Amino acid sequence: MKKTLTIAGSAARGGAGIQADLKTFQELGVYGTSAITAFVATHPRTNQGVFTQSLDVIEAQLHTIATQIGIDALKTGMLFTKDIIELVSDWLSTVQVKHVVIDPVMFGKVGTALMEEGAMSSLKDKLLPHATIMTPNMPEAEYLLGGKKLTSATDLQDAARDLHKLGTQFVLVKGGRLDGPATDVLYDGVRMVTLEAPRIDTIHTNGAGCSYSAAITAGLAQDLSVEEAVMQAKKFVTAGIRRAIPFEAVAGAIDHRAYKVFGEHDITVTRN
Ligand code: PXL
């Protein structure tokens, strides 16, 4: 069984973060391990929402997994601080991991900050050069590009070309926030691949981004090509959103079982 690792935050609600990643790994048939960078939950008295872990705790998890289990592919999700980004980047320089997926998590669905201010330069200069693929959504791509606004599928392609210069092998810009079909673009410096899924009219998409990058990680661990892994991941997330689990108080989560149980995967791929 191939082994995967997620380095990310714990989302107590169970839809996103570490919880989404491990569910995705399980569904796609890889062994999942985790290094938790922070806990995301709202404290009833202080209203504090992000509780980062000490660098020692994070380093201990990474060391344990690398020395006792092994890693065929890994992803990073919410790292939150500059110090954590630098710890993970330095650690990546010491281990040989073939496939590294970087989900540059910065904002939650409603704009919640999931990366502290001042961490961007470390993300760009130290972490991204390790990436096989980075998977920004539109606000993250805009922020990485210094505030440029993305409003069309053509803008996504331009953004992918610009982001590729940051040193990752592949860039996947996710256009879920555009109107019309859910269009993403994958660029490797030469070829632009457009993946399109029908728009599913729902607010219940918590964890879609996390699960997308986790599914790519699972595919890469199993030796799919990057394009195949992204295609499978897009199908996985589309099926999950179609069967999303609504919650009463907050936006619901994608159903991680959907791809395997119902097998829906109506996406189209265009290459140019
Ligand atoms: O979906 C982005 C995200 C990533 N990581 C953690 C989160 C969230 C959003 O809720 O809680 C830990």
From TrEMBL:
Class of the enzyme per the UniProt entry, highest EC level: transferase
TM stretches of this protein: none
Signal peptide range: none
Annotated Pyridoxamine kinase/Phosphomethylpyrimidine kinase domain residues: 13-253
GO BP annotation list: thiamine biosynthetic process
Catalytic activity: pyridoxal + ATP = pyridoxal 5'-phosphate + ADP + H(+)
Enzyme Commission number, as recorded: 2.7.1.35
InterPro entries, per the entry: HMP/HMP-P_kinase_dom, PM/HMP-P_kinase-1, Ribokinase-like
Pfam families named in the record: Phos_pyr_kin
Record-level GO cellular component terms: cytosol
GO molecular function: ATP binding; hydroxymethylpyrimidine kinase activity; metal ion binding; phosphomethylpyrimidine kinase activity; pyridoxal kinase activity
Domain of life according to the entry: Bacteria
Alphabetical UniProt keywords: ATP-binding, Kinase, Magnesium, Metal-binding, Nucleotide-binding, Transferase
Alphabetical list of PANTHER family matching this protein: PHOSPHOMETHYLPYRIMIDINE KINASE, PYRIDOXINE KINASE
Record-stated family: Belongs to the ThiD family.
UniProt protein name: pyridoxal kinase
The organism of origin for this protein: Lysinibacillus sphaericus (Bacillus sphaericus)
Protein's gene: pdxK_1
